[in-house]
Amino acid sequence: MNEDNHPTRRMIHMISGGATDGDSGRARKANGTRLENFEISKGADLPQDPVISFGPEDLRGIVIPHNHVLVVTVTIANYDVARIFIDNGSPVNVLFKSTLDQMKMEAFEFEPVSTPLYGFAGHAIPPLGQIVLPLSLGTDPRRIKKMIAFTVVDIP
């Protein structure tokens, strides 16, 4: 795997979302506390990530009024993965097993996850586990790189 997480293979299409806060109610509550503390202390000297903004040039070809979700392409473990659905309200980053299979990663281990996910139809989806992979977004010199925990599910 390329340490810089630059694209070196083919494109994979999927949908994903949100931050992974943990597998238990306690972990989710702790994340909520961290978020509250961040809001209280955000005036302090905190690390600055690049600002993401959208201007008039980003609206070319878009029919107004526009209220669609944000869908982007990111690089995950050296693969360009397109149609990533950004949902800040989602409690997990979902990675489909079929996407992981397309990555042809030779060796990986899932961290166990016991909390089921609930799909649009309301039925429980048992996760296969979590895996942490490098993700990068943007282009140099404004590329941001992070290690992200993904909850892997085996559904179409």
Describe the structure concisely for a colleague.
It is built from 2 helices and 8 strands; from the N terminus they run βαβββαββββ. It has 156 residues and is of the alpha/beta class.
List its traits.
alpha/beta; 28% strand; 156 residues; globular; Cathepsin D, subunit A, domain 1
Could you please describe the fold and organization of this structure?
With about 160 residues, this protein is α/β, with parallel strands linked by helices. The protein has one domain (about 10-40, about 70-155): Cathepsin D, subunit A, domain 1 (Beta Barrel). It has helices at about 25-40, 95-105; strands at about 10-15, 70-75, 80-85, 95, 115-120, 125, 130-135, 145-155. A six-stranded mixed sheet has the order 1-3-2-7-8-4. The chain has a two-stranded antiparallel ribbon with strand order 5-6. A hairpin with a 2-residue loop joins strand 2 and strand 3. The longest helix has 17 residues, at about 25-40. The radius of gyration is 17 Å and the shape is globular. Mean pLDDT is about 75; it is low at about 15-20.
